[in-house]
Amino acid sequence: MCxxxxxxxxxxxxxxxxxxxxxxxxxxxxxxxxxxxxQTIANANRALAQNYNSIQTRQQQEADKAQSExxxxxxxxxxxxxxxxxxxxxxGVGGVSFANLMSDYEAREGRARGNIDYNYATTQQDxxxxxxxSRTKAQSIISSTVKPxxxxxxxxxxxxAIKAGxxxxxxxxxxxSKPGKGQDIDSExxxxxxxx
Length: 196
What we know:
By secondary structure, this protein is mainly alpha-helical. The chain contains 4 helices and no strands.
């Protein structure tokens, strides 16, 4: 069996080793949390940038499509009006009925272009909403990720050190009993007062 002093020394050594291991573990865990946080932010920002690029490409394609469709409508109406003018000129027709026919062609062109513009504006708004949703999603991912706390490892080491100190104190306590172990409170206070 070990002598009390040897036992106390072994307890002290193991307690101090425990503090060292706890410190290494706490700082390692903190490093992992920081790495995970940095990686999550980088991934969320990369995904957001890719979504933005995709949406901007789509917006440009939609703008080009609307412009092309509008040009096609204008070109087709110019052809129709040109044929109508030529036919009217050959037939010697003019006046109110011809002006009404031209007004109808212009109204058709206006409605067609209005539809194109409306569809373009609606698509652009949808794409803008998608971009906003992507931004909100990235913010949510970043906000829900555990942020590194620079105090966390120090608090863990402090807790381990206090625990180790109490173990060492208990090992070197020569009163033969520990506070709260079967003694009434009056005898415990008397015991403490003789040492302090």
